Write a sequence for this structure.
């Protein structure tokens, strides 16, 4: 099963501590070597992006930044056997933030990506 | 983790950590079977304690430390392990405090080698192929005997016995927990790759609607391949095998229709192909090539699979290149099935007459006597040549030979089409029904 992890947090006033970045890189390497992490990358602040919407039959494009308190910080794609495994990798990732960046708060959504198993014929 | 069932949370940690724990323990006690038992003991303790105490911050280290204590206890109880105990007492990792950071780093350095030792031991040539597969899934994949049994459609006691016997063989034959010598490495590595690809194919040939454990074997094999690629980054064939599996797995969603019937490669909806896996496969293939592995059997097969993956439509397929690659593959790793696939490719590249000609000598190959794809390929080529009566005969033969119901239905409908004088169905061949040589 494949899971997409989306990390959301308030846009920090300062860049992340180097220790955290190093620990994240190490965890990423470990998850890659474990055959679990398929893809991951950080996301630029929404100021660099845009939003495309349809409301009331009208399509509109709005440039960032958006006014939400939280920004999307990064994504990761994991291939694991259970939801709990995805949760475990995510917990390790957030634990690093907690331990290495004082006062940091944020959340990660663990979303299952639909795969071949969801489109299989009924048994 | 309140929302997650505690036992399932422990099992998740187990899946992530078990291979490394077993590998580390096996280096300590020198016996894979004992190492696994000790690791299982630690798991049982975790299952008892964690639901109440919560999952520790570093669950892998917790499991490892617990298992090591069990190891020392068990060695103490057995006087015949007296010398080993002495050796353990000298192991600084057991006497120092576990929170010393340099110790953790030192253990980390070992982990890669320990895991490799575990893989090579599980795939040791003293074991039968079946035993290698079961032991690999058990020790490296952390699968239960029940899961392995369901995946391979055999009774659970059979798998349990296979594993017990395999462990006994390893200790009985005095197989040491060590890496192969450089001279042995090529043969030992090819045994490992064979086991992983066998696991993959077992999952790949599973039909939709079967127990989910069977298709899950594809993911398990991919995971093992990716782990091995991390452990042996300089070995081109490891990347070749990973590339082959990634690209084949990219088609999983497209290769059966809504009713579960197989869809020919040429007829697959290519929009359903998994672009991420294709990208990863092509990257792995580039690594294999860069390491000078272009002539390795797995890399060659991956290269062939990549030709299909790169083609946005069936018509874009570079059949001449595929035919050339099969020619090299037939040289490097000759087999009647490779020759048959070459006939298909030549049939597409040069024309059905030429392809048919290449199948002629195969009709007398004993290895293909009961192989349904030989008459299926010939039927397809004959139909394209307008020799419908002969084609119908071949398709009927293919239908009689296959044990797969879905495949039989496909062959019979092609036979019926030939009888109606309709000849070739669609733009391409049923010959690619089974996408790769096995």
């Amino acid at each position: 099963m494949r899971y997409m992890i989306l990390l959301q947090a308030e846009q920090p006033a300062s860049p992340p501590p180097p220790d955290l970045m190093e620990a994240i890189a190490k965890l990423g390497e470990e998850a890659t070597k474990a055959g679990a992490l398929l893809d991951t990358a950080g996301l630029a602040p929404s100021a660099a992006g845009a939003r495309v919407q349809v409301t009331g039959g009208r399509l509109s494009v709005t440039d960032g930044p958006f006014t939400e308190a939280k920004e999307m910080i990064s994504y990761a794609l994991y291939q694991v056997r259970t939801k709990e495994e995805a949760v475990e990798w995510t917990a390790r990732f957030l634990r690093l933030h907690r331990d290495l960046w004082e006062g940091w708060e944020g959340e990660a959504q663990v979303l299952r990506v639909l795969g071949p198993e969801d489109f299989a014929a009924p048994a | 983790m309140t929302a997650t069932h505690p036992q399932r949370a422990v099992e998740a940690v187990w899946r992530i950590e078990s291979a490394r724990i077993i590998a580390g323990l096996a280096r300590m006690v020198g016996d894979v079977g004992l190492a696994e038992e000790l690791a299982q003991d630690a798991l049982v303790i975790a299952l008892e304690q964690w639901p109440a105490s919560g999952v520790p911050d570093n669950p892998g280290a917790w499991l490892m430390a617990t298992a090591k204590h069990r190891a020392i206890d068990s060695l103490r109880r057995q006087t015949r392990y007296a010398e080993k105990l002495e050796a353990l007492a000298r192991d600084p990792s057991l006497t120092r405090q576990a929170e010393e950071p340099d110790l953790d780093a030192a253990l980390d350095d070992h982990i890669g080698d320990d895991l490799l030792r575990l893989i090579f031991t599980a795939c040791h040539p003293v074991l039968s192929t079946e035993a290698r597969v079961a032991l690999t899934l058990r020790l490296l994949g952390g699968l239960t005997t029940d899961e392995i049994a369901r995946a391979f459609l055999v009774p659970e006691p059979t798998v349990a016995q296979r594993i017990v016997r395999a462990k006994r063989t390893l200790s009985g034959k005095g197989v040491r927990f060590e890496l192969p010598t450089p001279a042995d490495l090529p043969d030992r590595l090819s045994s490992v790759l064979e086991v992983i690809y066998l696991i993959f194919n077992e999952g790949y040939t599973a039909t939709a609607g079967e127990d989910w454990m069977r298709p899950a074997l594809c993911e398990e094999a991919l995971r093992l391949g990716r782990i091995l690629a991390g452990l042996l980054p300089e070995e081109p064939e490891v990347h070749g095998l990973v590339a082959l599996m990634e690209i084949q797995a990219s088609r999983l969603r497209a290769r059966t229709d809504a009713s579960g019937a197989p869809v020919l490669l040429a007829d697959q909806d290519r929009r359903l192909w998994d672009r991420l896996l294709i990208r990863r496969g092509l990257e792995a293939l580039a690594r294999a090539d860069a390491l000078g592995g272009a002539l390795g059997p797995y890399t060659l097969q991956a290269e062939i699979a990549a030709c299909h993956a790169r083609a946005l439509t069936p018509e874009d397929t570079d059949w001449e290149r595929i035919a050339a690659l099969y020619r090299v593959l037939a040289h490097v790793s000759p087999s009647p099935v490779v020759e048959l696939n070459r006939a298909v490719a030549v049939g597409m590249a040069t024309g059905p007459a030429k392809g048919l000609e290449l199948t002629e000598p195969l009709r007398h190959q004993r290895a293909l006597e009961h192989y349904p794809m030989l008459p299926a390929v010939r039927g397809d080529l004959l139909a394209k040549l307008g020799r419908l009566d002969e084609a119908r005969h071949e398709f009927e033969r293919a239908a009689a030979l296959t044990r797969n119901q879905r495949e039989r239905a496909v062959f019979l409908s092609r036979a019926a089409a030939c009888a109606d004088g309709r000849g070739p169905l669609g733009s391409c061949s049923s010959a690619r029904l089974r996408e790769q040589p096995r």
About this structure: The CA atoms of residues 53 and 111 of chain A lie 22 Å apart. The radius of gyration of chain A is 17 Å.
